[in-house]
Amino acid sequence: MRTARLAPVALLLPSVVLVSVFVYGFIGWTAWLSLTNVNDLMVNPVRVVGLANFTRLMTLPRFRIGLENTVTFSLTFITGCLVLGLGGALLINSTVRLEGLWRTIYLMPMALSFIVTGVVWRWLMNPSSGLNLLLNGAGLGSLKSGWYTDPGFGIKAIAIAAVWQLSGYTMAMYLAGLRAIPAELYEAASVDGAGARQTFWRITMPLLMPVTLSAVIVLGHVSLKIFDLVIAIAGPQGGPAFSSDVPANFMFQTVFQANRFAEGAAVSVVLLVLVSLLVIPYLAWSFRRGIGW
Amino acid sequence: MRIRVMGWGIGVVLSLVVLSAMAQGGGKLEIFSWWTTGGEAAGLLKLFEIAKRQQPGLEIINATVAGGAGQNAKAVLKTRMLGGDPPDSFQVHMGRELTDTWVVTGFMEPLDDLFKQAGWEQTFPKGVLELLKGSDGRYYSVPANIHRANVLWYNKKAFQSAGAEPPKTVDEFFQVADKLKAAGVTPLALGDNGIWAATHLFETVLIGSLGAEGYRGLWTGKTDWSGPGVRKALDAMVRMLGYVNADHAARSWDQANDLVIQGKAGMTIMGDWVDADNLAKGVKDVGWAPAPGNTGVYDALSDSFGLPKKAPHRAETLNWLRLIGSKEGQEAFNPLKGSICARTDCNSKLFGPYLQWAMEQWKKDAIVPSLAHGAAAKESWLTGINDAMSLFVTGKDAAQAQRLLTAAAAEAAKK
């Protein structure tokens, strides 16, 4: 009887300990670091300086630009993935022929790492190669762009590569959602004389809402954490005038290039708060519905 | 059963490894660098060859981390040093990158005895000796080579057909640029992908505006960043940026040099690794001159090696450092690397025409530390300047740039 009660605790304990040290412990350590003066390799004595690192961050143009870029990136990337994903899912759901093949083709990019995607797209979007040559050849020379080397385009170029990579995944989510909608609902709707448009807006879309929300959460935290794709495409400096820079990249540069550990920790804390703002409401919502992760 | 057999196997292999290490008798030496390709790697291997000849049985661990300007390598090095697992010696830019990152923080051992024994106070120029010293006046690293940053490279044919001569001053630069533009050639090639090439160009403009003494003062606090000299340099830089190739943000320094080689651009201002690039590409009709307004000033950077306090193989490392600074070592390494010796007594016949010219200048010019390559300012300051440049090259806002540069200098002066 006692062992039966202790067994789950014993089984959970290792992971609880590991997670509390290596996840929450280090989050706490980072938060503490962000309040200190450790802005060099060796600082003696270490002092708590309050929010000084955060106030200095606010004065740095690079940090502000990075935050703005994150918003632009998230909007472009999430919208792109949702629209292309839903469109692809609807098409595949309606045409039966070679469905497995199409699904695989669209899902394949997800299997690549962001670094690989980044290197490929860096050459595709290089002003003197790739897409620009294609556009030229197709007689669409006026659509040529500097892509990530054009300060006005910047982060949107990174978003294009990210959409390419993850819209297939979004499609797979929507496809699963579509298949889960009971056929009776459609039958009932057609009996009631609903048209294709009405069926789509009144049945398909509302029942896909949970899928859309999950997709937004998954894509949203990817877009807040995006780092490797920016490094691979625009480089560690984040393109001209930081037009492709993101806070995660700025944090890496601050810590490992400038040795400003406390300031880098402050950037991490800001990022953590932003991710929490997105994830915590979702967790609360899904727990209340009893779904969990 | 299978596990036991495997255990035996591992045991046998391990003891063989130990035995063979013992049989060699020689020590070990781990050298950390980002020299992975071309002439750099060839030069490094040549040094290893000599070291092995001098110390029979020496096992050298070539710990390289690839990546331009050592960006990845420096991050790896930091985790190793802070984790108490330093390599025996590592490549580091002479000057503030060494002193402010590693000496001030107490990770390095002074090398005064080695300098005295080897007589290096007589063989290295004074300007270099100053840069090798920590704030306590002791020597902390041995320079393997010297690169020159402030060189103007120009396409001889393009200059001929435009009727232009290499510009000596900043004013002449703009006259030449207009002539080239009229001849249908991009006047100045720039490849500032990753921004450091823009900082590199700016440091030569700063030298042109402030002179050697004024430029040195920027790093000691004697020259005011918010003063008219820096403003003049920023204004000149804005004008220069009007003459560069449109796709400069997409190109690297060597891709910018390609524009000069192909005659699509007239000139580029870059360090003397361009010479090695031109030689490798078999290019002959590219000439060189000091950057505009930089005559008589040698804007220097150097790869140097030091001795970390916790180096596991101290004796072998001291021998390695002795080799790096010796005439034999420098004459073996530098012709391959495409740089000149830090010593002034190397045989110039071993070097190509550009390097012979550079050796002449090295003996008589005023030596100043390069900003973009870690000699002039500590890493956090350089990062701040690079960030200011990143905004400046695109926005061309001289007032904002001066504000950011002044703030970066003030932040760096804080203790």
Descriptive account of the structure:
The complex is a heterodimer of chains A (293) and B (415). Chain A has one domain: MetI-like fold, CATH 1.10.3720.10. Chain A contains 12 helices and no strands. Chain A has helices at 2-33, 52-59, 61-94, 99-107, 114-124, 131-137, 155-180, 183-191, 196-225, 228-234, 247-256, 261-288. The mean pLDDT of chain A is 90. With 415 residues, chain B is of the alpha/beta class. Chain B has 2 domains: 29-147 and 302-369, D-Maltodextrin-Binding Protein, domain 2 (3-Layer(aba) Sandwich); 148-300 and 372-413, Periplasmic binding protein-like II (D-Maltodextrin-Binding Protein, domain 2, 3-Layer(aba) Sandwich), CATH 3.40.190.10. Chain B has a 5-stranded mixed sheet, sandwiched between helices. The A-B interface holds A 39-42, 59-62, 126-128, 146, 149-151, 235-243, 253-254, 256-260 and B 71, 74-75, 78, 81-82, 101-102, 104-107, 193-195, 247, 249-250, 379-380, 383-384, 386-387, 390-391, 393-395, 404, 407.
Number of domains of chain B: 2
Summarize the largest interface: chains and residue counts: A-B, 31 and 31 residues
Note the run of SSEs of chain B as H and E. Answer: HEHEHEHHHHEEEHHEHHHEHEEEHHHEHH
Mean pLDDT of chain A: 90
Oligomeric grouping of the chains: heterodimer
What is the β-strand count of chain A?
0
- Uncertain regions spanning at least 5 consecutive residues of chain A: none
**Corresponding CATH architecture of the largest domain in chain B:** 3-Layer(aba) Sandwich
Principal-axes geometry of chain A comes out as globular
Tell me the fraction of residues in β-strands of chain A, as a range: under 5%
**CATH C-level of the largest domain in chain B:** Alpha Beta
Tally the beta strands of chain B.
12
